[in-house]
Amino acid sequence: MYRIAICDDVAAELDKTEQLLKEYEREHPRTAFSIECFDHAEKLIDMVREKDYKPDLMLLDIYMPGKMGIDAAKELRETGNQSRIIFLTTSREHALEAFGVGAVQYLVKPVEKEALFPVLDRVLEEIARMQSKYLLLRIEGRIRRVAVDDIVYCEAQGKTQHLYLKDGTQRLLRITIAEICGMLSCYRKFVRIGVAYLVNLEHIDSLNAQELHLDSGKKIYLPRGSYQMLKERYFDYYCGEGAVVK
User: Which entry of 27, 175, 195, 213 is 20 to 30 Å from 37 by CA?
Assistant: First the structure.
């Protein structure tokens, strides 16, 4: 699932862009979006800063009251945000500035699917490629490459980490679980549970206040007080920031 933020002060344009994204989803059944809409740049900036919101892609209008899209992008970049940015505007006046903040595209309104969809194809392919990363780990005295997407969970047993992969194999690592967490910190799908486990959210089959079940058949008992955090992270990952959790 890709997280996408749209920011435009004109309600009709905001709605049109959202509908275009939904049309893209319909035409690409294997693609899913979690879309957040903002009618003011400051609201988007606050969401990023205060709630650690990390969209994969932002579609920003350039001409907005209070803070222009270019200025918002500069401010977000200063916080370390690396989201891909597509600027939507009625003028080409700020094209050079747009690419100065690392924008991937600059589209002139009215934006139609014929212009937007090829850009989405390219950007989503880049994001998917970045997400399919590998870790280089010393395993049994040799440096081996492990695909991030293959990791189901990691369990600490003393000074040894047991890394379980989706093909059923297990790798023994002579590093700390904190080091593993650091290596995977840029991937939203990994969450640490207590002191002993690091779990890939994509492999959680079910959970309740006492335990979670992985699709591998593994059952993990939850430490006291960890359920609420885990439930929120799970729903945020699959349903987007602010999803209602009951």
Answer: 27
